[in-house]
Amino acid sequence: MSEQQIESVSVSTYSGPSIVWLVPLITALVGGWLVFRTLSDQAPIATISFQTAEGIEAGKTKIKYKSVDIGLVGEVSFASDFESVVLTAKFNQGMEDFLRRNTRFWVVRPQLSVQGVSGLSTLVSGSYIEIDPGPGSPQSHFVGMEEMPLITTDDAGTRITLITSSLGSIARGSPIYYQGILAGEALGYELASDANSVYIHAFVRDPFDQLVRGNSQFWNVSGLDVSLTANGVEVRTASVQSLLFGGIAFETPASLEVSAASVEDLIFTLHDRYDDIQDKTFVRKLQFVMYFTGSVRGLSPGAPVEFKGIKIGQVLDIRLEFDNEDTSFRIPVLVELEPDRIIDRNPDNVVSPQQTLATLVDKGLRARLQTGSLLTGQLFVELNLYPGSPINLVADEDVPYPELPTIVGAFEAISQSITAFISKLEEVDIDAMGDNIVGILEGTNELVNKPQHEETVTDLQASFRSFRNILGNVEETNLDQTLAAARNVLVDLDKTLDMVNDVLEPNAPLQYNVIKVTSELEETARSIRSLVETLERRPNSLIFGRGNAEEGGTQ
Prior knowledge:
Layout: H1 3-7, H2 22-41, E1 45-50, E2 62-65, E3 68-78, E4 85-91, E5 104-108, E6 111-113, E7 116-118, H3 122-125, E8 128-132, E9 141-143, E10 157-164, E11 175-178, E12 181-191, E13 198-205, E14 217-220, E15 225-229, E16 232-236, H4 240-245, E17 248-251, E18 267-271, H5 274-279, E19 286-292, E20 304-307, E21 310-318, E22 321-323, E23 328-337, H6 353-362, E24 365-371, E25 379-385, H7 410-426, H8 430-448, H9 454-472, H10 479-502, H11 510-537, H12 541-554
Parallel strand pairs: 1-9, 2-8, 10-18, 11-17, 14-18, 20-25
Antiparallel strand pairs: 1-4, 2-3, 3-4, 5-8, 6-7, 10-13, 11-12, 12-13, 14-17, 15-16, 19-23, 20-21, 21-23, 22-23, 24-25
Helix pairs in contact: 9-10, 9-11
């Protein structure tokens, strides 16, 4: 080649991107698309830790939501500290929204709880994991629940917090009642920071949660409430379920006051009994002391103080005091009265309760012990008006409480009367009186129940009359005639008495005839006594007669 040809060749430089880089760029785009496609088609995976893997099998245990399979446990392994097990679960596509911060997992297996028996279907199908989706940011690791939750996100209602001094029989799942209807349950409890109270977390279901307001009152209805009061033995229980597992009841009194605060931000007091709510309603309380000298057996702290059958207070304390000077005993009883239980019909009245009680004492207000129940023997303090009764006060200056006068109780008064009667009865000679009564009854029985014949008794009466007439005429007849007549009367009387003993029938009319015979016997006895006295004074009257004997004596 010639030099001229070589000089005509020119070299130029390309400043734009080289086409060679197009190939790797396309390769990167295709690879990224493949990666994105692979990741988007991959099922979501999450890890769940439990304390134990009981009932869980890799490749078999399913994850369900509302009985629909949404995943499967792929692997079961230990955590790094070997204190728990970690399940690797693979979910179906589209389940990414379920894996958020407040989502809960638990194992469904057969178990017995307050609500009853659950999970019986797993006896055949095997255990499975239930999911309760919740809100929050996406999350891939969760801590499973060891027990099935009492409520889920689908349950409508309101959470509340209660505080009590003692948990009692309340437990997780204990029912909450409104008017005896199941309205919710207790979710759990924890010890308060002061270590003297217990917080109970509960859930009231819709529509009962609409009845919970700021003035709602809660009380414990757990177990069997057996109390021995002045009214007798009281046994109360809300239901068999609360008897076994404890329970809570609540009510909301009607009120014009509207609370702006949410009930979820409030802490309600759980009272031990419904009566405690009523007792704490009355703020003003007045203490008084009463002195009793008789037995107070059956009176105990907490016994009611009643006025006209209405409780207006209670007994706080009972003591026994001894006086060395006169060796006597007295029993001071401290009571607490609630004047707000008595409604004043005059709202403008400015008289204090103490002044009102002082006026009532002047008009006869007294306290005495009464028996509330004959079955239990429990006593209570009764206040009532007894005009004219004396005001007996101890007036002990060392006692800082005002004193109310007392009188003897009705039962004690009856006991004293019976004791006095028995004392007087002991002074009577019961044996002698009994012997006399027995003798009278035996004589009456022999006289009244002796069988006789009515006709014979009539003959006997006629004989007695004849005999009396003969005695009356003794002074007019001679002795031979008198003796003959008397002999005939005696023969007739003997025959009559034999007939009385042998012939009388048992059903004769006895009372009237016996009375008449008795009268005749009395008159006959008097005539015989007169005859004997005459013969003693004038023996010759049987010969000469009474008139002739007097003349002969004169001669």
